[in-house]
Amino acid sequence: MNSLRAVIICLVIMCAALASPAAAVTPSWSALPVPAAAPPVTVSDLAARGPGEAWATGYEHAADGLRPMLYRWDGTAWSRDTTFPGADELGWIGKVQFVGDEVWIFHNRGGAGEILRRSAGEWSTVPLPQTLWTYQDFTAVPGAAWVVGEDDTGLKVLHYDGSGWTTQSTPDGVRYLMGITARTADEAWAWADTDTGTTILRWNGTVWRDAKVPLPSSSNVHTMLLEPSGRVTIGGSQYTDGVARTYLMTWNGRAWRTTYPPLGDTYTEAMVRGPDGALWLPVRSDRAFQSKYARVDGRRTTFSYGPERSDAIDVKPRALAKAGSALLSFGTAEIYGSKPNLMSERLGG
What we know:
5% of the residues lie in helices and 57% in strands. By secondary structure, it is mostly beta strands.
């Protein structure tokens, strides 16, 4: 009698699980084919605007130098774009951003910097006013763009207002800017190396000032996420006795809150806010044939793996982007006996 009762209970539970939407299987990562580049390759950035448009940037390491590499996702497949100015010249492509209805991409074209702009399916360029030794970062919003780097005189912050370029000053003691991002033309943030350590700067539409962010001691900054709600999230590493651990700082409009999710020493540059409201970022995988991702939701951190790749010895997602209800990943996979080439994965959608 007890055995029969147990069987009936099991059948009831199985039927309930099949019928209940809450018990639906969690979406898993799937592989997306990417047309091969000339390996080895480096992936720079990935940005998406809804499920039907995304762009991935990077460069090939050719015998005669670096070659720019640009891929487009149309909601169904990845394809390589070679129609932009300078596509067949030496150089590399960096950060990509959506600015209104346009796509803006930083392009190092044989050492000279420019912004690629795609509008109504056509490419044009916005040349920089001068050539820099190094181009550290780029960001753009409607009505403004910034390029930061260095020349023989030191730090340069180049600002574009839609019609021309100017050079902006930073507070005393700033040695160089490691990264920059913006929410509007009158609100930009940068993380800087200064005489006193890593410092967060903020542009208020008129001047750059120290934002007085209480960063953890002996730490650096990898990235900042600025969200329409006003929330700001900083990711970086803190060093204690030579050992690094990842920290996250969040501004909720009133105060900064610092947490230390169990991510070890993870570089957080690729961190994004996913369609589920949680933070997602690639982490170092303990499986050579699979990528690995972390999901940080408040104090809870969980992990998931990408699809298994036959004969892979190193799978490295380099950039993530929210694409509608899905997450897109773009990076490299090294198959045994060959050099790293491109790979892409998707969660949900």
